[in-house]
Structure formats: C-alpha cells, structure tokens
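Take a look at this chain, tokens included, and explain the fold to me:
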Amino acid sequence: MAKGLTAGELRLEDEETLVQKLKEAKEELFNLRFQAATGQLESHGRLRAVRREIARIYTVMRERELGIVTVEKETSDG
C-alpha cells in the first residue's frame, strides 16, 4: 500500500478502490502486529501510520455515506 495517503487523495477514489485499500491496510496492520509480537518489527512508527490510514479510509467512506462529501466527477466545461 502506498505510504502517506491523504484524505484528499482518498476522496478522489471510487468506492471499490477504497474497499481494496482498506483491505490491504488491514492486512498490513495484521502483519505488523504479528511482527511486533514476535520481536521482528523494525519500524514501530509504521504501526501508527497504518492505523491512521485505516481511519482516513473509514472517514472518507462515512462522509460519503452521510452525504457530507460526494465523489467529484471530472467534467469539462466548454
């Protein structure tokens, strides 16, 4: 999964892509937790970053559900 996803970048993605990114982030978090439990984790900061990515994805999904932010389609005026 790409590092440093921002909420703005996530808002441009469609629903299927968000679900896929969420799945990838959860898998990565599981692997990082497993590494931490076995003493093999090299970067503890990555745990925090992945948790935040998951929270951002959930936030964008919830905003869409509530109608706060909608997916903006590219349109050309002319």
